[in-house]
């Protein structure tokens, strides 16, 4: 699971409407998988990312070099864009769990794929 995907999912358990984003990682096994660099895509994605959630997720995974804010010159700042590229597109959680901070529901991740299916009573 790429961190770009993680930045867009929240808990969907019935009546879990607060403090359900971002899901926190537990027992995460991270792998870096090379991806094609596309600065135009990154520039277009920046406004769609929840930057604070991304920073918190990175710290959970032991990645501590993410800037606290998006620089004003982000579109022209190649070093920043390459760092974002590495973080959201090349950092994959291969195994582990995502846990909701509100209801504590666990979403298992196996072979890089999160299981977001719910039991009937959770919908």
Question: In words, what does this structure look like?
Answer:
GO terms for molecular function: protein heterodimerization activity. This protein is of the alpha+beta class and 123 residues long. The protein has one domain: N-terminal domain of TfIIb. Helix content is 28%, strand content 20%. The chain has a 4-stranded antiparallel sheet. The longest helix is centred in the last third of the chain and has 13 residues.
Rounded to an integer, what's the Rg over CA atoms?
15 Å
The strand order across the widest sheet is 1-2-3-4
How many DSSP-defined strands?
Answer: 4
Biggest sheet statistics = 4 strands, antiparallel
- By CATH, the topology is N-terminal domain of TfIIb
CATH architecture group name: Single Sheet
Q: What is the H-and-E element order?
A: HEHHHEEE
Measured as a percent range, the helix fraction is 25-40%
| Whole-number mean pLDDT | 96
Terminal CA distance: 23 Å
CATH class: Mainly Beta
Given the helix and strand composition, which structural class is it? Answer: alpha+beta
Number of domains: 1
Short description:
The protein has 123 residues and is of the alpha+beta class. The chain has a single domain, classed as N-terminal domain of TfIIb (Single Sheet), CATH 2.20.25. It contains four helices and four strands; from the N terminus they run αβαααβββ.
Which descriptors apply to this entry?
single chain, 123 residues, alpha+beta, N-terminal domain of TfIIb, 28% helix, Multifunctional methyltransferase subunit TRM112
